[in-house]
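User: Just a sanity check before I run the rest of the batch. Below are the structure tokens for the first item. I only need the designed sequence back.
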């Protein structure tokens, strides 16, 4: 996949503009998807900084200055001790909670994938229904717990996008296929927020079966999330997390059936996951 293909697919993303976009990818302590995540943004011409958590925490309140987006990546932060993403979320809240709240208030974007999504919900970044501008990070009201079928599950899933969702990352997309690999991906809600999350369309994408309908049936729904929820966004749509891995489907050949797709003349020009990153960059440029 060369630069010509990228330009042809994302022609509205001028390299002159995208190179002014800065993304922070937090790394270290068991996180392991930094290369793929950084590559996704680099393919779009974005400036990416990979910063180890220890170095980031040392920067203090100004740690996020100059960035337009923060990416919370996949992996097993701190070995998923206590619960997946819990230790990393606690460290970030304790040392950078105010900086993250101010970052969101100023229009910064957040994207979390798998472990990154687990961190975001435990930080209170998602769905953050009760948080008001200028206030600290919200209390945690949702979580990601062990899959209904206990154990680590690794497979590709089909996803349907809710066109009514405010999520900026999923705009213009109807369906996705992405790899999914986790043991704690079942999204559960405090009863007090279930109705409001549904009313505000804060579940941007759902696991679907072969007929394209949301499902609770394994393995199409790999974890048993209620309402087939595969991710969440906040009310602004600029903070988004999902359990599947868009960074693992950047190239057409990442798909397990790419040869079949090629032979049937339906191989996409780029991996479907790259479209989520491109939408995030578009949102930065539009703000």
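Assistant: Here's the designed sequence for the first item:
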């Amino acid at each position: 996949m060369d630069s010509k293909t990228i330009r042809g697919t994302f022609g509205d993303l001028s390299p002159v503009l995208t190179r002014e976009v800065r993304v922070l990818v937090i790394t270290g302590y068991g996180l392991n998807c930094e290369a793929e995540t950084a590559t996704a943004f680099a393919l779009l011409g974005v400036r990416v900084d990979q910063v180890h958590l220890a170095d980031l925490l040392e920067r203090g309140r100004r740690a996020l200055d100059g960035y337009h987006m923060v990416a919370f990546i996949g992996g097993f932060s701190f070995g998923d001790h206590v619960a997946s993403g819990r230790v990393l979320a606690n460290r970030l809240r304790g040392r950078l909670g105010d900086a993250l709240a101010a970052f969101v208030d100023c229009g910064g974007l957040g994207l979390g994938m798998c472990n990154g999504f687990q961190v975001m919900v435990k930080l209170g970044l998602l769905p953050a229904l009760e948080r008001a501008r200028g206030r600290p990070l919200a209390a945690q009201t949702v979580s990601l717990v062990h899959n209904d079928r206990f154990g680590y599950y690794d497979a590709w899933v089909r996803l349907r996008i809710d066109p009514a969702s405010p999520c900026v990352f999923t705009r213009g997309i109807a369906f996705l296929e992405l790899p999914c690999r986790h043991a704690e991906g079942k999204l559960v809600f405090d009863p007090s927020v279930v109705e409001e999350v549904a009313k505000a369309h804060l579940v941007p994408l759902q696991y679907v079966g072969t007929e394209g309908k949301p499902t609770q049936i394994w393995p199409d729904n790999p974890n048993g999330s209620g309402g087939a929820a595969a991710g969440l966004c906040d009310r602004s749509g600029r903070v988004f997390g999902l359990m599947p891995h868009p960074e693992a489907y950047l190239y057409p050949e990442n798909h397990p059936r790419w040869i079949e797709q090629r032979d049937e003349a339906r191989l996409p020009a780029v991996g479907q996951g790259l479209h989520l990153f491109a939408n995030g960059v578009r949102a930065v440029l539009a703000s």
